[in-house]
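Q: Got a minute? One more chain.
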Amino acid sequence: MSELKIYGSVVLHQAGCDEAGRGCLAGPVVAAGVILPLDFDHEFLNDSKKVSPKKRSILRNLIFENAISWAIGMASVEEIDEINILNASFLAMHRAINALEKRPELLLIDGNRFKPYENIPHKCIIGGDAIYRSIAAASILAKTERDLIMEKLDVDYPSYNWKQNKGYPTFEHRLAIMKNGMSPHHRRSFSMGKQLRLDIL
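A: Always. Here it is, folded:
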């Protein structure tokens, strides 16, 4: 993985940013911003989708202990329904960046779109969570934080099995919505008619 960006002879403090939960049917979208020391690395560090839950937990603690600065932001289901999931993802990222104790000089964003944050320059990188350490770290924090949220919500809404599917549109989750209706934590703005089609052979 890469990290070092040099502008002239100046090494910039970079914050990697990523979100989790954009494609879910329920729960908030969660984002994280992370500024890592230039020498920080770990063999497990990668895109959170490519890391096992056990390794993500190990990395989460290592990031908390070693990051120069880290923060988590989120946008609620109500905000997702009001401004759409793309803008809600930007809002969650902005909240994470705003909460960083150290102001970054460069933002590395996973993906191909971003709403500029104040006067901090940014760079969008498709697949950046598999390229830049700081984005991978943000991916880990966003994913683990959102998983914890969904596991807590599962206690009150066990019929949707969020402790397993984390709100993603699995067959089981879609079937549970058809049987039980939508909970207060489901996103009303999503096209449920399309999402709830069951591919039964």
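A: Strands lie at 6-7, 10-11, 14-20, 29-35, 69-75, 106-110, 122-125.
Q: Perfect, thanks.
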